[in-house]
Amino acid sequence: MRLLCDTAREWVALALRRFDEVLVDHAHCEKKAAAHALSMLAAFPTVAGLPRAMARLAREEAGHLAQVLSVMEKRGLPLGRDPGDPYVQGLQALVRQPARERLLDRLLVSALIEARSEERLALLGANLPDPEMRRFYSRLADAESGHRELFLRFARRCEGFEARLGQMLRAEASLIRELPLRPAIH
Ligand SMILES: [Fe+2]
Ligand SMILES: [Fe+2]
Predict the structure, then answer these.
(1) Are 82 and 65 in contact (CB under 8 A)?
(2) Can you state the angle between helices 19-43 and 99-127, rounded to 10 degrees?
(3) If pLDDT is split at 50, 70 and 90, which confidence band does 100 have?
(4) Predicted confidence (pLDDT) per residue in 26-40, tens digit
(5) Which ligand is in closest contact with the Cα of 148?
(6) Domain parsing of the chain, residue ranges
(7) C-alpha 182 to ligand 2 mean position (Å)
(8) How far is the CA of 37 from the centre of ligand 2 (A)?
């Protein structure tokens, strides 16, 4: 799977200039990723292999959250309230409600979020001034690519995978083009 639209270069400049805000948003992303994995487990307990995969994913995302929180603590940054993520909300609005479609759509939305996060974290990993933070973000970007593949593996088993993936990729690209750039992961 390849995303149809690259992140604008301006996002990198904005993210580096207001990196503290990006860090706080990143912590919220990891928190939501962990909660999301558990919510997939709760929603689809009968899909073969999914509960265990989601339990492991939740643990890994919670580990990332703890790591980001410790970077924030060193910088004296509090977590604060989650202002919400218009990009993720835009993707979630595409999820169809009938049970079979819902499983496929939720898996694809998850895979897209992981793929976009991978791209952005890798950009931070390539462009942050501090070598330790570059390594940190490159490692996290690699983890996102594993998560993307995990969601795609389950999605491929669903009927209508190819066609729906194409629609979702196009919808994701339009969201990325339409939404204003923020000092945030998405
Ligand atoms: Fe993560
Ligand atoms: Fe992830």
Answers:
(1) no
(2) 150
(3) confident
(4) 999 999 999 999 999
(5) 2
(6) 9-178
(7) 20
(8) 9
Residue 95 pLDDT exceeds 90:
yes
Q: For domain 9-178, which CATH number applies: 1.20.1250.20, 1.20.1260.10, 3.40.50.1360, 1.10.10.10? A: 1.20.1260.10
Residue 36 token pair: 């999301």
Task: For 44, list phi and psi in degrees, rounded to 5.
Answer: -130, 60
Q: What is the DSSP letter of 180?
A: P
**Which value, in Å, is the radius of gyration of the alpha carbons in the chain?**
16
Residue 50 has pLDDT above 90, yes or no: yes
* Alpha carbon of 124 to ligand 1 centroid (Å): 14
Q: How many angstroms does the Cα of residue 34 sit away from the middle of ligand 1?
A: 8
Start-to-end C-alpha separation, the chain: 19
Tokens for 122, please give them. 């890798």
Distance CA 186, CA 179 (A): 9
